[in-house]
Every structure is written in structure tokens, then in C-alpha cells.
Fold this sequence. Notes:
The complex is a heterodimer of chains A (about 110) and B (about 270). Chain A is mainly alpha-helical. In chain A, about 65% of the residues lie in helices and about 0% in strands.
Amino acid sequence: MSLYSMQKFLFDLNRDPGVQALFRSAPGNVLDRYDLTREERAAIETHNIGLIYVLGANGQLLMHYAAYLGMPWPEYIAAMRNGVTQHGAVRAGIYAMTTDLNEKVANI
Amino acid sequence: MSLVFAGICSHAPGITGRAHMAEPTAVKSLHAAYRSMSEQLKASRPDALVVIAAEHFANFFMSNMPSFAIGMADRYEGPIEDPQWLGIARTSVPGNADLSRRLIQEIMQSVDIAYAEEWKFDHGIMVPLHFLTPDYDLTIVPMNINCQGPPLTPLHRAWAFGEALRRAADTCSERIAILGTGGISHWPATPDSGKINETWDREFLRSWSANNKAALLAYNDTDTYREAGQGGFEIRTFISVSAAAKGLGSVHFYQPIPIFAVGCTIATMTITE
Ligand SMILES: [Fe+2]
């Protein structure tokens, strides 16, 4: 259920300006609604895109979340690579990395 | 009336959001290809455009994931993404709940679908509309095939859906255009973003253009994932257009543009009885 819950949070946040406003003013209250592990909750609280990626969040949910955070594209790509460097391979889902750690795809 | 236009095109968010990072001549040719598709669409004098897209969790989630969904509203909002990131301003797009209802009722005779009176557009629909109907003045009927949350819609069901859509369009008095949006091979939203399997793409486009049903339905998700990435699952929308149009395809533009994460594609198909 847990990865499901983390993704559900991202889904709700990405599509709902009301959730976005609440998450800005009282992030804890929003996160309390979801059944998250400590690791998942901390990853979201610290905007740790790399760890959320490794935990297996669907890339489309994650990409829209990074956009919501205002993260420029090269930073978003770098954050995912850093996540894999620090925490190892993607643990679930269909968005695993298939290129080498220091590979530059699309010159990024 | 029935179908008056059928086409497929890319919908990657980078096409609008990262245009400034791409090679200018490639961007120019892609924009020209979208423009000529827009003109072709307009020349067909459609009353409505059915967009068969592969959405990315704008409306549907694993809490209740439909294999197929069709919008049934008079207005839709989009994009859900940060407008600055996507390079497309938030807007309202006209729909036609009555036309949707008639299409839905007929499609339901052979394919079990979900309908939705609320629907937010993401880049899967907004990027194509940004180029094809930039004034958002054409009635849109959004349709979705689950290409994102496994278990995914089987390819042969995407074909059956396309056939059902055609039958439904044939019963309408309106002039209906259809557009399938998605990517062929790509690894979007991952560190691999920009990886493109051009050989695989060209092979797929050959089968699509020939409307080779056997070849199109012979793809399977294990091989597609390995050779064409999770983005390759979106071939479902292109396959349903083949089943609906029943004609032969012409690829007007195909070019890998890595910073857009996809082999950018613009193609149309003739409509055959
Ligand atoms: Fe997509």
C-alpha cells in the first residue's frame, strides 16, 4: 500500500490547486492523510526527487511534481541520477533507469 | 457523416516546455509539420475532434483505473501541469456533452468503457491542441487508453476500441476528426529521457502506415518495455486510430529530437469504408 499512497499523494497534489495551496501552508496536515513510511514522508518533506524516484514513483507523477516545485529540467534529471547513486537502483514500478550512471542522454 | 480526418502525433511536454533547448532547425521543421497537420485538419471541416490520448494521471489513478474512458462534458480545463513548465497557458477547451453521450452509447455496444463528466487535460492533449487548434475553438471529445498504470489495456482491445469508435462516428450527423497522441519508443521522465530507438520507431510506423493489423497486434509489453521503454506503451492510441480509419497512413514527419524525449511524429491516415 505504501508506494501506492506516496503516488496517490503526488496524483492529488499534481492535479488539484486546492491541495497545492494547502501543501504550501500546512504540508504536515496534507501528508497525514496518506499512509506513508517514514522514508517516503521524509523524501516528500525534503523534496528529495532522487529518493522518490528510487522508491518507485511513476515517472509521470514525479515529473509533474518536479515541475510543481519549479525544478529546471537538467536539475530534475540530475536529481534522479543522484538518487540512484546514493540509494541504488529503482526498487519498483516501470520507470527504472537503463542508462549508465554518468551517461549524458540528450546532452544533460 | 462519419470520419473526415484521422491522424497521429507526438505529445511530449518537452516539445513546448523545452523548445528553447532544442536544435532550432529541428524545432522549425517540427512546427511546420504541426502547422500543415493543422491546415489539413481544418480543411476537413470537422465539427469535433476526438483526441485519443494516453494521459499521465491527470484524471485516472490506480484507485479506479479504466482501460478506456471518454469525456462527456461541455468544457474541459487544462493543462494540469505548471503552465510555465509546459509552455502552455491554462485555458478552457470546448466540449460537447451531447455528442459524447451519443458516441459513448454506441461504443458501449461492443467495448466496456468508463465515462467522465469531469476531465482535466494534461500534456497528452494540450501539446497537440496547442499546435493544431491554437485558438481552442474546435469541440474536443477526449478519450483515454490506459498506457500508464499496469496492467495496461491489451493491444487487441485498443483495436476493438478503434473499431467501435468508427462505428459510433458513422452513426453521427457530425463531421468527426480523430487524433491519436503519444510517443513511439521513449523513456520519458527518467534519467534516460532522450533515449530513442529510431529503428523500432520506423518499423512501427511502417506497420502503422500499411495498417497491418497482425503486425500491430503482435507487439507485446515485455519486448516493448525492453526495446522502446515505458513510453512505447503509448502505441495503443496509434493502433486504435488504424482500427478506426481502416486506411493507409502517410508519415509527414519523423525525427528524433532527444531533448523532447521522443522521435517526433506527425502522420495522417486515409479513411476507408
Ligand atoms: Fe505520454
